[in-house]
Structures are given as C-alpha cells and as structure tokens.
C-alpha cells in the first residue's frame, strides 16, 4: 500500500506563501511539479524508493491529484486519490501526500488531507483509507480519521487510517429513522400498522380477504418540478410495493392537488400514461385545484400468499434483482434511475410477477432509502442484521457504486431465501444475484474484496422493530 505522510524533507524551491489554494491538478506542469516534490522527498530524502516512487496508480486515468498552490501558482504540495479496484467499487485510497518544507507551518498538509476527504465524499466513495507513517497518525486522528492498526511499508512503521464515511447512515436517518416514534400512536388501535408479521411492510393484507393495499406519496418538490414524471412514479412505486408482496395489481386510487390547471393536467397525464403502461386502472380518487402541489396513490392487488418483508432468518441469502436498463433521469443524476419508461407493457407486466414467481421467504422493493437502507428495513422486520458483498451487487455500468446504493433505482427487489435457492428467468436487462446474507448483528455492513466489513448503518433503520 502506498505511503501517505506529512514529510520532513529539506529541499524546497518555493518561499512560504501568505495563503494557498487547493485545487485539482489540471495541467502537465501541475503534475510534473507534484511528482518532483515526491521524488525529492520519497526517493532522495527518506530513501523509501531506490530510483522512483512512480507506480501504476500514477498511470491510472481514474486517479485524482489535488495540489496546493501559492498565489503565484507555485505548487506547495499535493496528494493523490484513486479507486482500489477495477471496476471501481467505491473503495478508494489516498497516497503520496507531500509538502514543501517552507509551507508546512501554514497548514498545507492538513488542508490537503481535508480536501482529499471532501473530494472522496463528493465522489460518493464508500470506503476511503490511507497508509500513514506511524508518527503522523495522531494528526490524522485529530482530523477525524480512525486508526485501524499497523501496516509496515518498506520497513517503516505505518498505520492504516480510515476516513469515516456516513452517507448511508445519513440517508436512512433522514428518510426512515423517525417512523417508529412518529407512528407509535397508530398502534393504540388493534391492527394498527398492520397485522402481526406485516408491520412496516410494503403493503398490507386487508383482514378477511386476499386483497393487498399499498400507498405512496410523491415529494411535493418533485411534483412541482417534473409533474409528468411524478405522475408516472406514483404508479411505479405502488406497483413495485405490490410486486414485493407477490400481489397482482388490480386498481389504483389517486389524490392530486395542484395550484394551476396546467400543473394538474401534466400530473394526470403522467398517471394516465403509467396506468396504461402497467394496465392498471385508476378507479377513482380525489382531485383539487388551487392548492399546493401534492400527489398520493393507493394501489390494490390480490394474492393468497403474500410475501412478508419480515420472513427472513439469520443465514438466509440476500438477493438483489434489478432492471439495469435505462439511465439517470434528467435533472436527477445520482438520485433516480429510470428503467421503466422505455419498457413495453408486456415487459412491465412480467416484472410485476417476478417476486411472486421467486416465492422467497422475504421481499422488499428498494425505496428512497436505497439498496442499503432497504436491506436494513428487511433485516429489521426479520429481527436480523444484513451484510452485503459489494463486489457481487448488480448495478448499471454507468452508475457509481455509492450512487447506486443510495438512489431510487426504478425497479429493484431485495429478497431473502435459503442459500442456493434458484431464481426464475428474468427479462433481458434484468440482473439477479445473491449478494449478501442476513446476520445476527443488527444494522447493515458492507463486505469488501479484502474481507474487511465496514458499517453502513449502525442499527435498526425505522424503529418499527420486528414485523
């Protein structure tokens, strides 16, 4: 592993600067100056390398170099970041941090470290590490890094440091963590939040029938900004809920509010297109004009064997089945994947039966909490934890792992079943793979190719508890 160190070299060709700017290296001159600093320190100063410290990371086109420059453009220091795997799984390392001696008192080194962390977070990196000379570990710890033990390099003591990245925890906290407390009063009535075994599920069986009901609301800002897409998605998410329950959709009810007739028309147009695409009629509902934009849809389906989110057990294999066709919705890059709008009605109908044909022990459609958050909800409902094998998670080639695990993926189903269970054939473009398991430890962990597991979600997601 590459050394990342605040270095103590004596060679300097630049005077201390009154200030500095950290930016991405944009020119051959920037890179040449940065590499000259590295050679002076790593090769000539510390003798960590015999002739050159250049390596494959320098040749990787995915590598990002950040440099600190003085007001006159002189490079005062730099650091590089790069994916550890090919293809990129969201595991990055930082390395070759170097500064000129004359600029160290101005805090260039720590500033470069902070900039590297910020870049990693903005790039959606899920695991970010660096091997740091042991004498500098306290500085990294002071900056918020975690010390994960010794890792000697070139005969010198180094510490493996990891920058804590909590984007999955923040996502679940923002979208789901309040549900247990907020919905607690509804439990005061018998049957509140659903019958035993279905609490917190995607849909709920209506007592004494084979009818499954589901309900979803669309974020008002999305209704205002992209009304036809909002209308489409209001049907999509409800059909997905019924799909996860193993139910065949039979009808919809909509509740639509809009400040103007024009916005109302566009919302209804989107609902109508989706109703036709999935061949599910809108049976009725409520429509109001002259009010803030709002949209909610209730869906009904039928099955005699509903599939619970809470039917899993420790040791069950987790499987992700996702439609990888399509692309990012315009204006929603990294947040919403559109795989459904180009599908035919026959293809959508086939997708809507896929989970019922799988007949797994547990199932849940991937919601706004993303793959990781949804895995946590399925695990919570089952009274377990979850572990995902990052390298085995199906994803589109154009989607970064961090974005894919946190976005709304259009059509994606998480199922839990016995190890070795065989999935039925899926339509072209739909990929299914066992990519994890339900575990005894609460929360969600990500398992990496080197065997290390990092915590993505520390505990139960919703607070609703076991279904």
Task: Describe the protein.
The protein is α+β, with helices and mostly antiparallel strands and 467 residues long. It has three domains: 3-165, Gcn5-related N-acetyltransferase (GNAT) (Aminopeptidase); 168-188 and 307-467, Alpha-Beta Complex (Phosphoribosyl-aminoimidazole Synthetase, Chain A, domain 2); 196-306, 60s Ribosomal Protein L30, Chain: A, CATH 3.30.1330.10. 28% of the residues lie in helices and 28% in strands. The chain has 13 helices and 22 strands. It has helices at residues 28-45, 56-59, 108-122, 137-142, 167-175, 179-183, 220-225, 227-245, 261-278, 345-352, 354-358, 370-382, 401-406; strands spanning 3-4, 21-24, 64-69, 75-83, 91-99, 127-133, 146-150, 158-163, 204-205, 211-217, 248-258, 282-289, 294-302, 317-323, 327-328, 337-338, 362-365, 385-389, 412-417, 430-439, 444-447, 453-457. Strands 1, 2, 3, 4, 5, 6, 7 and 8 form an eight-stranded mixed beta sheet that branches. Strand 11, helix 9 and strand 12 (282-289) form a beta-alpha-beta unit. It starts with a strand and ends in a 10-residue tail after the last strand. 47% of the residues are buried. Residues 1-17 have low confidence and may be disordered.
